[in-house]
Fold this protein.
Amino acid sequence: MSDTVPPQRQDRQPGQQHQMEPRPRAEMADYRGSQRLASKAALISGGDSGIGRAVAVGFAKEGAHVAITYLDEHQDAKETLDLIERAGRRGIAIPGDIGNPGFSREAVRQAVHAFGRIDVLVNNAAEQHLCERLEDLPDEQLERTFRTNIFSQFYLTRAVLPHLPDGGAIINTTSVTAYQGNPGLLDYASTKEATVAFTRSLARHLLERGIRVNSVAPGPIWTPLIPASYPEEKTAQHGAQAPMERPGQPDEVAPCYIFLASQDASYMTGQVLHPNGGTIVNG
């Protein structure tokens, strides 16, 4: 039987986690860390909610200090910082537009100033806008989606690289839509396929520097992006078409990032992990 969510809609992007019902499981309440990221520091874009929050808390439970970026969801960001600190690690939250290259440089500067280092970068921030007809896709939306979803990964990675040590890790968030496509999310799906190519190319580019680069391609996960993107009736069916017949939760995705950030994944680069509820994809 499908395990779906109540109809709901948020009228702004990015969405806000504290307004969702039920709230996504992003607190990693049952996760027990083993210090796999002890004394490391991570920078996570879009770390205020959803998958980004779960990754931030999971990293903290594994011993890492965590800096998160977010646009303007101040309450969500504060909740994430509280969870990081409750896990016994330091956290900072940096508001701004990740599609602005100047902000990327400033976010890195603040993270390095706070922690003295960056060992792990997670390029996670993204937005999506439903558009049923290509003829109706505004130029402004097309540029905005690419700027947030893929240009930002170039900007933030470029700014981080001078600080990332041998043994560092970069993890990019792509999507099942990169492999399946989505007729109502043409621009979003295109950016996610670009993320796969960026991951594979960057992995080879950074081999000699000892930096691993991998991706995670979530399926239908219950995050603020969903009620902020779809009408109420579509939100209520989110995840129902997955083989597991339900949306995934952020705390079911975060362990992929923890694994890829740690030395457990020392022989993996240029790869994509697929927490998607059982959908078979090639790649």
Q: What stands out?
A: The domain at 17-273 is CATH 3.40.50.720 (Rossmann fold). The chain is about 35% helix and 10% strand. The chain has a mean pLDDT of 95.
